Design the sequence.
């Protein structure tokens, strides 16, 4: 099934929800500590209702701590969190049927239960659940419906966990790395579910390490690093960049001298540099990034017997923005 078919199929199930009022999630000056570790450092953001909101950040940036505080599983050490206008810890009972939670690496299902039973059981606690058989079908789990949960692969358990998070038609869903470790087919199925949720007015807060996923799904992206906000905006605004760029890869390493020599052949104001990941980029005034620049780069490569590949002119990707803001070194 394609994502748009997912959207139509789930929308046809009349997800519903009460009239939209306050933001879905309001986090103000959130602080979360574990002993001496400051995991979240005065983080503030607002998630509009009906939007898909992606939280990005390097390992240990504080994404899970933030999301689990919003889910009511952890208490804030400072600041405030409001979820659907309520306190996620104090008002947990009221929020439970309104908020779906998919934990990191799946989880939440009884290992001995069968897949279909588990989802039907979860659905039985909900007032107006989605048909469990439909969800199993959308997530490619129909053939595993009679299998015990513990016999599922990691990716299948994750998909079951997503099904359990959404079966009750929540108004808001938290998905912590929903596609980590999934194969491409399963990733697309999950994206289809997220798109279906959005088209039905459900708010989705997800964390991910896949920049393409955030760029494709999210209405807004929050980038955190060391517990602090480093960027927030729509993917389009974050990637707009002030300077257009020409990027390419090469079948030979271009050292500093080679890049200087290349720069000398380029239109005025253009500079060639390494991007640090085996690729190269040429930046310059917008008027210079055009056919003459492309011709100059390929002519220089031809003269030096260097084969350029992946040559593209355009805006930065979300991955470029992420690496620029959070650094390229491993932590
Ligand atoms: N239960 C805990 N006890 C002690 N320290 C913790 C605990 N949970 C998280 N931390 C620490 O808090 C910081 C933030 O962790 P968190 O799991 O929120 O980051 P994350 O952005 O979700 O990381 P990842 O992308 O690796 O999942 C890290 O330094 C981590 O080691």
Sequence:
């Amino acid at each position: 099934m394609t994502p748009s078919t997912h959207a139509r199929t789930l929308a046809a199930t009349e997800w519903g929800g009460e009239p939209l009022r306050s933001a879905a999630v309001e986090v103000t000056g959130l602080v979360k500590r574990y002993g001496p570790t400051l995991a979240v450092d005065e983080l503030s953001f607002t998630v509009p209702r009906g939007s898909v909101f992606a939280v990005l950040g390097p390992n240990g940036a504080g994404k899970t701590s933030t999301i689990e505080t919003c889910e009511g599983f952890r208490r804030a050490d400072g600041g405030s969190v409001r979820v659907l206008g309520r306190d996620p810890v104090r008002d947990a009972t009221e929020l439970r049927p309104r908020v779906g939670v998919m934990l990191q690496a799946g989880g939440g299902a009884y290992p001995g239960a069968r897949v279909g039973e588990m989802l039907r059981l979860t659905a039985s606690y909900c007032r107006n659940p989605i048909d469990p058989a439909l969800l199993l079908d959308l997530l490619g789990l129909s053939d595993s419906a009679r299998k015990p949960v513990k016999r599922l692969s990691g990716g299948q358990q994750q998909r079951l966990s997503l099904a359990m998070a959404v079966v009750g038609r929540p108004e808001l869903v938290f998905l912590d790395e929903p596609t980590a470790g999934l194969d491409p087919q399963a990733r697309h199925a999950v994206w289809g579910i997220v798109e279906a949720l959005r088209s039905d007015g459900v708010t989705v807060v997800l964390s991910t390490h896949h920049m393409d996923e955030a760029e494709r799904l999210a209405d807004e992206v929050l980038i955190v690093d060391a517990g602090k906000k480093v960027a927030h905006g729509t993917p389009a605004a974050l990637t707009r960049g002030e300077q257009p760029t020409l990027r390419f890869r090469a079948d030979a390493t271009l050292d500093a001298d080679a890049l200087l020599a290349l720069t000398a052949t380029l239109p005025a104001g253009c500079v060639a540099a390494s991007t640090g990941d085996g690729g190269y980029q040429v930046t310059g005034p917008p008027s210079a990034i055009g056919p003459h620049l492309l011709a100059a780069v390929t002519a220089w490569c031809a003269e030096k017997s260097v084969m350029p590949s992946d040559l593209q002119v355009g805006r930065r990707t979300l991955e470029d923005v992420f690496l620029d803001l959070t650094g390229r070194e491993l932590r």
Summary: The longest strand covers residues 37-47. DSSP finds twelve helices and 13 strands in the chain. The pocket of adenosine-5'-triphosphate is lined by residues 34, 37, 39, 57, 59-65 (CB under 6 Å).
